[in-house]
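--- STAGE predict ---
source: upstream dedup step, 1 unique chain passed
mode: sequence only
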Amino acid sequence: MANRVVIVGRPNVGKSTLFNRLIGKRYAIVEDEPGITRDKIEGYSEWKGKEFVVVDTGGLIPSSREELLEQIRKFVEEELPKADVILFVVDGKEGLNPLDEEVAKFLYPYKDKVLVVVNKVDNPKVERNVAEFYALGFEKVFPISALHGQGTGELLDEVVKYLKEEKVEKPEEGIKVAFIGRPNVGKSSLINAILKDERVIVSPIAGTTRDAIEIPFRWKDKNFTLIDTAGIRRPSNVEYGVEFFSVGRSLKAIDLADIVCLVIDASEGPTRQDKRLGGLIERRYKGCVIVANKMDISPWSPEELEAIIRKELFFLDFAPIVFTVAIKGQGIEELFESIEKVWEDYTKQHKTSYINRMVHKIISEKPPPRYRGKETKVYYAFQEGIKPPTIVIITNYPDAWKENYKRFFIKKLREYLNIKHAPIKLIIRGREEKS
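--- STAGE serialize ---
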């Protein structure tokens, strides 16, 4: 197993700030509010020639019986035996806290690989608090400021003493599949069903997932990167702060994804917010699978619900619809079969000669509207790229190509180019326009 460094501590001591510092980029959401990290987040780091995986965990309160905090404790319990080094983060500014003592007892069976990291030590007044953390019973204590980077070099010098000389095998980046949807529609449950592992915390509390979590996954000899995101609500319902950044990450996840799974609640059917999210996918020309989750409590049959979805999300007419019950693992095979179909069409490339033949076939059936009484001609066409398949038309009058004709044209292109399950981007250029 690869070198593994696990960050542990009570809520709001700066674990995610340290995680971001160690992996060298802003990945985990950082906010001055307890309990932001709820899932297990992994990144990669290297120091003095040694590579290692860094694991950020949720704020730990070992004695809590609250469901969400129990799940966090379970995650941490699973990680500790696998860790080569455990970074026990405490708050130097606040000083020793009774919760730190609880966490210390929880970590004591692993004391030989625990380093106490006193965070937020950025002035002489705070430095005076550092000595009291030796009372936790661990031999090695390191004062740092994760925010400013002070002391992290000395900390890493110690960390690598525990690590083996080996390369970390980073998973190959595969097809990026983002799961987006309103809060509590079952996105995290779907990912857990796919992974057959409680990698992402699932809770009936709306808004449990805060970060966009990227998880490498392999299915039938293909590499995927699954992206779980925070549930997206309407902007008027989003306060500035953690949820604001979570929504921003969800929108960024759409931009980064090749294929977006729009998860809707089958017990409610498509809502206005689902339509808004579908519009974001359409405008970004992303491959899409519509996932109707919670079919076990849906008042409609699959056929009835499909008709409703097609009517409400008519602009995603290219997207396959899959029916799932994530908590029972139902529909996962069908979901990946649909993702593969979308990927095949999303990356389809045709020769210029074939594109031209099909374009002229469409025009012979129904030519573009005349422009100021003059005939609208197409000189030639070609495919400019994939993801999405992008078709460029060179014409004498670009302004003649009105939206309704473009919709007809794209529909015919999809039919003739056999691109049934992916969007087509149509670009209309005049003869003298440069690309």
